[in-house]
Automatic annotation (TrEMBL):
PANTHER family referenced in this protein's UniProt entry, alphabetically: CYSTATHIONINE GAMMA-SYNTHASE, TRANS-SULFURATION ENZYME FAMILY MEMBER
Pfam family, one: Cys_Met_Meta_PP
Keyword Cell division: no
Name under which the protein is recorded: PLP-dependent transferase
Co-factor(s): pyridoxal 5'-phosphate
SUPFAM superfamilies hit by this protein: PLP-dependent transferases
Highest rank taxon of the organism: Bacteria
UniProt key word Transmembrane helix: no
GO molecular function: transferase activity
Listed InterPro entries: Cys/Met-Metab_PyrdxlP-dep_enz, Cys_met_metab_PP, PyrdxlP-dep_Trfase, PyrdxlP-dep_Trfase_major, PyrdxlP-dep_Trfase_small
Family of this protein: Belongs to the trans-sulfuration enzymes family.
């Protein structure tokens, strides 16, 4: 009975209360879960354990965070890593030389770099496929082990139907892996739609304050969880206790942050669309966005990331140089509004022909809208755009 009440809880509540810790007054009733800054743990007797032996294997602060993230994504297990890339790197250890993966053509630049320069050297083969429009089944080979996607993608906001893709991967008995960083569990839960593994850069919306790097792998499969636990113990990129505390603290406000950031993003996207020096605004919350209907079906929101194309390269560069409160910086998902140049920053290491094919030109800027008062954001943009136009 109690369990059913827990299951019915909404995500805003789950961000604040870990169900299994409910009612207990452990840790002197501390409201914030304590930071267990300990590398090792004393044993009560020979062959006995307190449940914790060594912090590379498990740490109470990390475990609390991992259980929280598992509950937000409806997974059976989540593992916390020192960065998003550390999480993806460990995930690649599921595969062996000769295995083939289908990966979305438009991905976070760091993921493409990892696949091209590290995984390929380790004998993994890749096919880069536009998963939102191509028939993924046609690329499946005998040695294909997984499909790896983001939706919406970074930075071009392509939307893939997760459920439809999961039907294909399940039929062929291969894994579906979804990087859910852009929407966070607040807006989208890929495991519910048939994915096997969810990846997060916890640095982004989960942490939410641009102050801590973190990454997560979440799964609802017992066999994968077991393998991940073995791998994290063996390779040792688990998130440090203090950083776990910071991410846990960030997650408590995930819901209000995402709601506000999205509200602001919609206002700014509409404003950008009216500007004469803007050629195109890509935001999946616009009805004319090709992924709009799928987003409405599979997500609870459209997020706070938007990409826009200026009519000239000089405009793009001048905007980056003239912003003040809005910062020209990489990364996303924090309380501060950031604007970046995918061409030279996040996607600099992506081969030029792929960049072109994905529409990442020198006129394209990406904005991660924060939670400032939208009037101040719009005032700054009005000023910057006027200066850029030479008014
Ligand atoms: C930032 C990011 C990553 C990498 O995460 P880090 O925490 O920076 O290592 C992976 N995927 C996406 C979509 C990202 O935005």
């Amino acid at each position: 009975m109690r369990q059913e009440i827990y299951m019915a809880r909404e995500i805003e509540t789950k961000c604040i209360h870990l169900e299994e810790a409910e009612g207990a007054l452990n840790h002197f009733g501390a409201m914030a879960y304590p930071i267990y800054q300990s590398a090792t743990y004393a044993h009560p007797g020979v062959g006995q354990s307190t449940g914790y032996d060594y912090s590379r294997l498990q740490n109470p602060t990390r475990e609390h965070l991992e259980k929280t993230v598992a509950s937000l994504e409806n997974g059976i297990d989540a593992l916390a890593f020192s960065s998003g890339m550390a999480a993806i790197t460990l995930m690649m250890e599921l595969f062996k030389p000769g295995d083939h993966l289908i990966v979305d053509a438009d991905l976070y630049g760091g993921s493409i770099r990892l696949f091209n320069h590290v995984s390929e050297k380790n004998g993994i083969e890749f096919s880069s496929v536009d998963c939102h429009k191509e028939n993924v089944a046609a690329y499946i080979r005998e040695n294909t082990k997984a499909v790896y996607i983001e939706t919406p993608t970074n930075p071009m906001m392509n939307v893939t139907d997760i459920k439809a893709l999961a039907e294909i991967t399940k039929k062929h008995n291969i894994l579906l892996i979804v990087d859910n960083t852009f929407l966070s569990p607040y807006f989208q839960n890929p495991l519910n739609l048939g994915a096997d593994i969810v990846v997060h850069s916890g640095t982004k919306y989960l942490g939410g304050h641009n102050d801590t790097l973190a990454g997560f792998l979440v799964t609802n499969r017992e066999d994968i969880s077991e393998r991940f636990r073995f791998l994290i113990k063996t390779t040792g990129a688990g998130l440090a206790p203090f950083d776990c505390f910071l991410i846990q603290r960030g997650i408590k406000t995930l819901g209000v942050r995402m709601d506000r950031a999205q509200e602001n993003a919609i206002e700014i996207a509409k404003w950008l669309k009216e500007q004469d020096i803007v050629k195109k605004v890509v935001y999946p919350g616009f009805k004319e966005h090709p992924g709009y209907e799928i987003m409405k079906k599979q997500a609870r929101g459209f997020g706070a990331m938007l990409t826009f194309e200026l009519t000239k390269k000089e405009y793009a560069i001048n905007i980056l140089e003239k912003v003040r409160m809005i910062k020209y910086a990489e990364s996303l998902g924090g309380v501060e509004t950031l604007i970046t140049y995918p061409m030279t920053q996040t996607h600099a290491d992506v081969p030029e022909h792929i960049r072109k094919q994905n529409g990442i030109t020198d006129c394209v800027l990406r904005m991660s809208v924060g939670i400032e008062n939208v009037k101040d954001l719009l005032n700054e943009l009005e000023e910057v755009f006027a200066e850029v136009r030479g008014e």
